[in-house]
């Protein structure tokens, strides 16, 4: 079974039942995938001392993990279409764990890039994307809520992994911390085991009902279904989704977003330590972001599911981006611990909104049937941005010894992306919709303009 498990028609989504177990698995996978690249930053000071490197060098570790998480999207789409979600996720869990265990034995920063960066990042990628696809298969009407709850895994794990990492660092050193973390990542394999695909019979029945509605002869209808299934198998990655104008706008906006979205969290702990904040308190700043984020994501998911907001989710997403950018800009001059705590509260709120809405907006643009290919392509473009953002910020700190610049840089990029997405959606998408009227209204489609 492949990504097609989803979805010739979304009415087959049970919106509950075993879907809640799938949601729990997605919660854990999302937690590891998004929180781990940030939580690993608690080890950066010690890595800089042991390997004699700077901020930019250590920032590459998180960037490579995130780049693999994003850049492996097309490869992951192909593998899932060919082998199915569960086998791909099992392999991913083993890679993620093996990468961190190997990283505990490294002797230079390059080896750390290959193990903790490339191998662990690839393992997380092979878990993250299939978990989203399975979540979209099991939920339709409750999908905004499901996405919000699954996205809450990121702040929950960030709240735990950051102080846990500092504790492991103090007791066992960074090598022992990496080794234990590798063991924790084996839980990804457990999550993979619960990703049970929907039965193929259900989808065939739906396809047959469509053929009957078209009043085709039974034999011809059967032949058409077989032909469609064969075509689906051949299309391991559907590039035709790039003809969707809404998707192009989304890709451009997300590219700008990713340039600055992760910069504050990756460099925050080092910044606080340089300001004289004790190591434990500095690590706790990420936990504050996580605690606020825990409530922000499900709440935002519930709001996005309201009938009067769901058709305008793209504008809601734009508002979240601008909010996050303003938080960075307004907090650029914060140097004392109290100011950093206030920044973390507002950043956690705005960051949670962004995290809860980003994939819901993408599903609304392309629909669930094209989501797998669209997600793979979007992540590929974002991989380029994530390789540029954090290392560039680290370079600015190394050169100018001024953290204020990175907050202005990250905030400006988020604000730009939010304004661009809102204006582009209004000017290019809404006009296209008006021209295409009359058409059947679908409240789930936020922007779906196919040329």
Automatic annotation (TrEMBL):
Q: Which organism is it from?
A: Phoxinus phoxinus (Eurasian minnow)
The record's CDD domains line, in alphabetical order, gives: MFS_MCT3_4
Q: Does the keyword field hold Protein biosynthesis?
A: no
Q: Which SUPFAM superfamilies match?
A: MFS general substrate transporter
Name it. Answer: Major facilitator superfamily (MFS) profile domain-containing protein
Pfam (any one): MFS_1
Q: Which UniProt keywords apply?
A: Cell membrane, Membrane, Symport, Transmembrane, Transmembrane helix, Transport
Q: Name one GO molecular function term.
A: monocarboxylic acid transmembrane transporter activity
Q: Give the signal peptide range.
A: none
Intracellular or extracellular location(s):
Basolateral cell membrane
Q: Which domain of life is it from?
A: Eukaryota
Gene Ontology terms: cellular component: basolateral plasma membrane
* Record-stated family: Belongs to the major facilitator superfamily. Monocarboxylate porter (TC 2.A.1.13) family.
Print the organism lineage.
Answer: Eukaryota, Metazoa, Chordata, Craniata, Vertebrata
Domain Major facilitator superfamily (MFS) profile: start-end pairs: 19-435
Look up and give the membrane topology term: Multi-pass membrane protein
Residues annotated as transmembrane? 20-40, 60-80, 87-106, 112-133, 145-164, 176-195, 247-272, 284-308, 315-334, 340-362, 374-393, 405-429
């Amino acid at each position: 079974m492949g990504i097609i498990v989803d979805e010739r028609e979304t009415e087959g989504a049970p919106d509950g039942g075993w879907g809640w177990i799938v949601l729990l698995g997605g919660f854990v996978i999302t937690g590891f995938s998004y929180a781990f690249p940030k939580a690993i930053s608690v080890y950066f000071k010690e890595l800089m001392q042991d390997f004699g490197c700077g901020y930019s060098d250590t920032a590459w570790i998180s960037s490579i993990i995130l780049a693999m998480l994003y850049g492996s999207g097309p490869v992951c789409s192909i593998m899932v279409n060919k082998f199915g979600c569960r086998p791909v996720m099992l392999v991913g869990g083993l890679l993620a764990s093996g990468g961190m265990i190997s990283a505990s034995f490294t002797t230079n920063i390059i080896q750390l890039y290959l193990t903790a960066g490339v191998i662990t990042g690839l393992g997380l990628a092979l878990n993250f994307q299939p978990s989203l696809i399975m979540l979209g298969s099991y939920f339709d009407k409750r999908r905004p809520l499901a996405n919000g709850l699954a996205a809450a895994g990121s702040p929950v794990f960030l709240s735990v992994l950051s102080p846990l990492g500092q504790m492991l660092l103090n007791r066992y050193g960074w090598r022992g911390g990496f080794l234990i973390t590798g063991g924790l990542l084996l839980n990804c394999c457990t999550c993979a085991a619960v990703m049970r695909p929907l039965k193929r019979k259900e989808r065939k029945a739906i396809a047959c009902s469509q053929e009957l509605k078209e009043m085709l002869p039974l034999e011809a209808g059967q032949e058409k279904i077989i032909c469609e299934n064969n075509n689906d198998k051949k299309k391991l990655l559907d590039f035709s989704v790039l003809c969707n104008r809404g998707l192009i706008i989304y890709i451009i906006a997300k590219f700008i977003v990713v340039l600055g979205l992760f910069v504050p969290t990756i460099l925050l702990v080092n910044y606080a330590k340089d300001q004289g904040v004790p190591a434990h308190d500095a690590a706790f700043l990420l936990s504050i972001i996580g605690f606020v984020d825990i409530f922000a994501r499900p709440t935002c998911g519930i709001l996005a599911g309201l009938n009067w907001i769901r058709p305008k989710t793209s504008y809601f997403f734009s508002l979240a981006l601008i909010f996050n950018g303003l938080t960075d800009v307004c907090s650029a001059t914060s140097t004392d611990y109290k100011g950093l705590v206030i920044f973390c509260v507002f950043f956690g709120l705005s960051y949670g909104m962004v995290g809860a809405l980003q994939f819901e907006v993408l599903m609304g643009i392309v629909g669930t049937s094209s989501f797998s290919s669209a997600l793979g392509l979007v992540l590929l473009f974002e991989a380029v941005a994530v390789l540029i953002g954090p290392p560039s910020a680290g370079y600015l700190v190394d050169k100018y010894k001024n953290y204020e610049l990175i907050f202005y840089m990250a905030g400006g990029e988020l604000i730009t992306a939010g304004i661009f997405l809102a204006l582009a959606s209004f000017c290019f998408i809404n006009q296209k919709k008006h021209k295409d009227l009359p058409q059947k209204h679908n409240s789930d489609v936020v922007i779906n303009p196919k040329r």
